[in-house]
Amino acid sequence: MKKKIVLAFLVIMGLMVLSSFTGVDGKKLADGTYSVDVTFEGGSGKAKILSPAVLTVKDGEAVVTVTWSSKNYDYMIVDGEKYLNLTPGKSSSFSFPIKELGKVMDVIGNSVAMSKPHEIDYKLTFTLSE
């Protein structure tokens, strides 16, 4: 009986380790919601991504939700995937997966603020807020 309990405990602990998102310095983030700071580069400087953003970790997968200072973004491209605005007409908010904190991510934001839509390159870095 004790062996079964120990085995069950080890399996559960293994699953918990596997289902944790790795943050900065190899620290695991358990499932939950976190505040992350956003470092932003690129574009004309007229629009920014608001910081902090929200990071949600569930089953070891992390998704960040960002909101632009402008409501004129209709999609973003992250790792070759297109993500549509979650709040069109109100603001420009997007949710997309993130693999790790502290690493620069190249993304594209499509702005419709000009006479014709423009895809603009940005660099984003997310770090855990203190």
CA distance, first residue to last residue = 44 Å
Low-confidence stretches: 6-11, 13-19
Biggest beta sheet summary: 8 strands, antiparallel
- How big is the Rg? 18 Å
Estimate what percentage of residues fall within beta strands: over 45%
Classify the helix fraction into a percent range: 10-25%
Count of DSSP strands? 10
What topology, given as strand order, has the largest sheet?
7-6-9-10-3-4-5-8
Number of helices: 1
Alpha-beta classification: mainly beta
Mean pLDDT: 86
The SSE order reads HEEEEEEEEEE
Shape: elongated
Question: Which helices and strands, and how do they pair?
Answer:
Blueprint: H1 2-18, E1 21-22, E2 28-29, E3 32-42, E4 53-58, E5 61-67, E6 73-78, E7 81-84, E8 93-98, E9 105-111, E10 118-128
Antiparallel strand pairs: 1-2, 3-4, 3-10, 4-5, 5-8, 6-7, 6-9, 9-10
Give a description of the structure.
The chain has 130 residues and is mostly beta strands. 13% of the residues lie in helices and 48% in strands. It has an 8-stranded antiparallel beta sheet, with no helix packed on it. Strands 1-2 form a two-stranded antiparallel ribbon. A hairpin with a 2-residue loop joins strand 6 and strand 7. The longest helix has 17 residues. It is elongated, with a radius of gyration of 18 Å. About 10% of the residues have low confidence.
Please tag this protein with its features.
single chain; 130 residues; mainly beta; eight-stranded antiparallel beta sheet; two-stranded antiparallel sheet; 13% helix; 48% strand
